[in-house]
Amino acid sequence: MTRRRFLALAATTALATACTDTAADTSPVVHNSPTPAGATRSTRRRSAPPSPAAVHANELGLIPVLMHHRLVTSAAGSYDMTPAFFRQELERLYRENYHPIRALDLARRDLSSVPAGKTPVVLTFDDSTPGQVAFNSTGRVAGDCALGILQSFHARHPEFPAVATFYLNKHPFGLTGSAVPRALVRLNALGCEVGNHTWSHPNLHALSRVEAEAEIGKLAAMVSQATPTAPCGTLALPLGVHPRDSTVLAAGGRGGTAYRNLGVVLVGANPSHSPYHRDFDPMAIPRIRCSSHDSGRGELELGYWLDQLAARPDQKYVSAGNPARITAPRGRQSLLAPKLRSRAVWY
Ligand SMILES: [Zn+2]
User: Fold this and answer.
1) What is the 158 CA–ligand 1 centroid distance (Å)?
2) What pTM value is reported for the model?
3) Cα(127) to centroid of ligand 1, in Å?
4) What domains lie within the chain, and their CATH numbers?
5) How confident is the model over 305-325, as pLDDT tens digits?
6) Burial of 294 (0-12, 13-18, 19+ CB in 10 A)
């Protein structure tokens, strides 16, 4: 990723010719998927939001969606990270006012949990490897897995939710038998999202539509059987490869393997648009790689993008703390998705 590419991306979020200011009404956008059971809204505000200018609100700005793979004590590949790297990542996200949400929240355009002045961030984990989620002999989340590290961080910083999206394959986290549904129920109860990464992680482009539906549907069925009120709502493409017919991602299967996805996350390699931005596509959400294999500052990676966003804070999504409205500085009116104009507040 070059500086030029960042600036090109940023330009689509930045100054634009003015449209008509909108005297917003408060009618909410109707979403077509319920919040899964166990999803937390612990930081929902009850007091009046602050002045947008006081918090530099910009709800048309960029949102980092972070892609993690294996958590291992010695990083061997460019998708690995160590526990120390992940702890440092959380420290930096907290220090720089990020607030975790789930991929499903982004896909559904529901950022109501993000307090004023905070920037949403999505922590995603692919491949459901054992270092991501593990349980000790008493059934508690093990302290040295990624979820355990996130929970420990949350215990020290309660305003930073221990919320993440885990994209599963068969035998998630190395578990089998009844341990699988038990783990999925726990993740759901903790407010985490369980997403679809297909049953056996194939190259979807090499499959027929029927075969692709079977791969997505079989994993979706495993989750639906464990947590019927919280079916998979988003999908991460295995290998980052699209199927020949992308419509298979949104819905398919029948009976017990029927599925519906409201969002699809990609493999690379830049921040996402705000879900209120005219160019936001929930079926193609880009992600940024988190890896401690090298400096983590490559142009696809976490350090690079957090540096970029820190250097240009006016390009970041910053919540106004007013979920009924979409608040952004004047001059960015043309960046708002037209169907959301009735909710806009410009300052
Ligand atoms: Zn994968």
Assistant:
1) 30
2) 0.88
3) 5
4) 62-346 (3.20.20.370)
5) 999 999 999 999 999 999 999
6) exposed
